[in-house]
Structure formats: C-alpha cells, structure tokens
Amino acid sequence: MEYWWEVRDSAGGSLITEAQSFTYEDNRFDWRTLTSGIITVHWHKGDTAFGQAALDVAANALTQANRDIQAPLPEQVNVYIYADTAAARAALAPVGRIWADGYADPPLGLAVVAVADDVGAAVNLGREIPHELTHILIYQATRDRFAQVPTWLNEGLAVMNQAEPDPGFSAALDAARKTGTLLRLSSLCGPLPADPAQAQLTYAESESLVRYMRDTYGATGITALLAAYADGLGCAAGVERALGLSLDELEREWLAEAFHIGPINPLPGQLDPVPWAILAALVLLSPVLFFLLIRLRPSARRPASP
Fold first, then answer.
1. First to last CA, the chain
2. 3 in helix, strand or coil?
3. Given this model, what pLDDT does residue 18 score?
4. Which of 110, 181, 198, 209 could form a disulfide with 193 if both were Cys (CB 3.0 to 4.6 A apart)?
5. pLDDT-based confidence at residue 102 (cuts at 50, 70, 90)
6. pTM of the complete model
C-alpha cells in the first residue's frame, strides 16, 4: 500500500509529503518468498522446491499467455499461495469471493491461489497460477477500461491459458449441452454469476468460445478485441469492430463449430421479438398474397410474345 499526507493551512498553503509504502499481507502465516525478475511467489507451507516450482509456473504463464494478449508486462507480480482452500477463502471473504480458490487484483499485480504441497501440487499450480496471471495481463492491455472487458473474454482467456484443464468445467459444459441449458453469449457479457454452478458453466462456455476464436481468428483477433474494449466499446460493439460480426453471429459460428448445434433457445419470456413480428406480418398479409396469386395465374398461361 502507498500513502502520503497533504497538509493545508488557513492561508491556503499546502504541503504534500513524500509517498511511503508498506506491504499489507496476511499475518496469520510466516511467508517464505522467491523472486525472479518481476515475479515474487509467497508461500507458507512447503519446501523450497515447492516455491521454485510455483515460480517457474508463473514465469512460463506470463510468457505463454502474452502470446495472445500481447500486453506490456507489469512492474511487479506477487503470487500468494495458501496451503488450503479454507485459508484462501477466509482471506478472500472481504472481497466477496468466499467460494473461489483464486483471486487476482490486476492493478496491484497480485494473485492469490490455494494449492497444497502434495502429490497434486504440479497440476494445481499449473491450473491456478496461469489463470490469475492472465487477468493481470488483460488489465495491462486495457488499463482503466479493464471493466469493459466482457466476462466471456476475460475468463475465457484465463481458463484457456491454464496449463491443466479443470475437469469440472468440461463436465458442466457437456451437461448443459445435453440438457439444452447453455447460457446465451449476451448473458456472459456482464459480471461473473455469484452462484457457483452458474459461474462454473460461465467459465466452461467462455473457454470454449475463446478457444474457438483463437483458432479461427488468431492472436490478432484477440488483440483486436482487447483494443476495442480498451477504447471503451461495449460488449457487442467490440465484437463488431474487431471481428466484423454481431454478437449473435459469433455465437452461431461458435455453436456450429464446437457443438454442431443451432442457436441457443432463449428462456421463456425472453423470446426475440423480431421473428414474431415477421410471423404476424405474414399472417396479416396472407389474404392479400392469396388474392394476388389468383390474379396472376391466368397471365402465366398466355403465350410468349414473339
């Protein structure tokens, strides 16, 4: 944290002191640290090899993820690794992430994850750290317009860059596909759902969509999207500028390629009014069309002019 004092007197004069800073961290634990370049990892349980493995994963994650994002690197990145989910969630509760196993504060270059030093450490480090560091890179690409980035792009990139896929996401996506409960792309523009099950499906769909986009439009498509959102465009407008597609067109392309299915049916009460308006017009015009067809039938039997 950084702070300074500003003192003003009755005559209108003022004095601003030099900025001071200190590290605000969870003092429930004794943290060990390792640093390489701009990255510092902090952990409180596990040997040096565990910390080095985390540092290696973080360094590789920044390089790999930035091949698509192409953002300037932050001045520093701090990764805090809690030894269990309960400890991490207790630390994250003040920011409203009581169910999450990871968290990023991109402006601070801060990532918090829960990974135990056990037989699954390598897999879990490769899953959690790249995810959170991707959010930091997205912030670096968009800065004060970070909030403009749709959830499907923000989380889709983060999940796609995980070295290890989350099996829960794949299962959620497959179940939603089979039951016809996939979320509309337009609903993934807003904040991540608070409900864990809906959040899991959001992660899964977002990753599938962004992977399709990367395979189809390449890194240039990803960077064009981020540039559009950095310029302040909304969810749909950013897609239109970067890819030349409407949000619905992108959704149809993705569904056809990834699942070989048609458009997602909207929920009851949320039907698109345009098709219904066309149907109503056809019903009203049908007598007129019928009359015109009757009138035109005799002329069709006339011999052609020489």
1. 92
2. strand
3. 87
4. 198
5. confident
6. 0.80
